[in-house]
Design goal:
heterodimer; A: 5-stranded antiparallel beta sheet; B: 4-stranded antiparallel beta sheet
Chain lengths: ~110, ~120
């Protein structure tokens, strides 16, 4: 069956450290993968998209990698700040539709 | 990117009634997507709404329960019909930026509680 799994429901990281979130998928062949941030009571906000032929993409303190062999994406936030605390969702395209993982709640501890 | 106005932001409804959620986009878009997010869960796609044709529903969702209108390229509604407490959830609409390669923009969501 098709699955998108994100590591641990919650992740606590000390301020200033790098937070790394994992997204694994099975039985999908996405052309691209996306990462979103969701704050409580709000809709998801798009952060980054990485295509299947791209290994890595960066945006300010964010970095995403995409390994289609391992069927995995890693999402890194460097120099993390308490304001980065939120739920982060990965999403795959599947024939024009976007399928979301359950998300990882990230807490950056001051 | 597009800006979506979604309303109502929240509502408490009696079981057996219906609620219509509206999404207005500030630009013309071909497809609009409706999602449900149950407590502690991820977003689940309900249906894709194209202007001028019937919506395409995902497995587990039917038109009689979730009728959708798409009268023009900037507006759509989702109705949750004959509600039960199991319908308590957040409902979100979304549009693609470009061909989806710029990500998707979401409305702020409608938090529905059925009592």
């Amino acid at each position: 069956s098709q699955k998108i799994e994100q590591n641990s429901e919650a992740l606590n990281i000390q301020e200033g450290k790098t937070a790394t979130l994992t997204c694994n998928y099975t039985n999908y062949s996405p052309a691209y993968l996306q990462w979103y941030r969701q704050d409580p009571g709000r809709g998801p906000v798009f952060l980054l998209l990485i295509r299947e032929n791209e290994k890595e993409k960066r945006k300010e303190r964010l970095k995403v990698t995409f390994d289609t062999t391992l069927k995995q994406s890693l999402f890194h936030i460097t120099a993390s700040q308490p304001a980065d605390s939120a739920t982060y969702l990965c999403a795959l395209d599947q024939r024009g539709k976007i399928i979301f993982g359950k998300g990882t709640r990230l807490h950056i501890l001051p | 990117s597009a800006v979506i106005s979604q309303k109502p932001s929240r509502d408490i409804c009696q079981r057996g009634t219906s609620l219509t959620i509206q999404c207005q986009v500030d630009s013309q878009v071909t497809m609009m997507f409706w999602y449900r997010q149950q407590p502690g869960q991820s977003l689940t796609l309900i249906a894709t709404a194209n202007q001028g044709s019937e919506a395409t529903y995902e497995s587990g969702f039917v038109i009689d329960k979730f009728p959708i209108s798409r009268p023009n390229l900037t507006f759509s509604t989702l109705t949750v019909s004959n509600m039960s407490p199991e319908d308590s959830s957040i409902y979100l609409c979304s549009v693609a930026v470009g061909q989806g390669e710029g990500g998707y923009t979401f409305g702020s969501g409608t938090r529905l509680t059925v009592v």
